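Morning, I've got a small favour to ask if you have a moment. I've been staring at a protein lately and its backbone has me curious. You're getting the sequence in one-letter code plus the fold written as tokens. I've dropped the whole record in just underneath, so have a look:
=====
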Amino acid sequence: METSSTGWVSANLRAARARSGITQAELAQRSGVSANSIARFERDERDPRVGQLIRIALALEVRPSSLIDKVESASEDAA
């Protein structure tokens, strides 16, 4: 199993989907990326390919970069 080295994409994807108020199945339908793949991306089991990332971002109406930018935690901010 491939695992992401950062976890940023999964956290950003979950947050963006939650803000949009849609399910993984709805995101899959809107983006053309399988629901299984969406779930694996959100569980940080895989990172999306560039094309998938772009289709997901378009479906969520966000910039693709917002899905790959590093998530800053409160503990990192305090450092």
Residues 8-20 form the longest helix (13 residues).
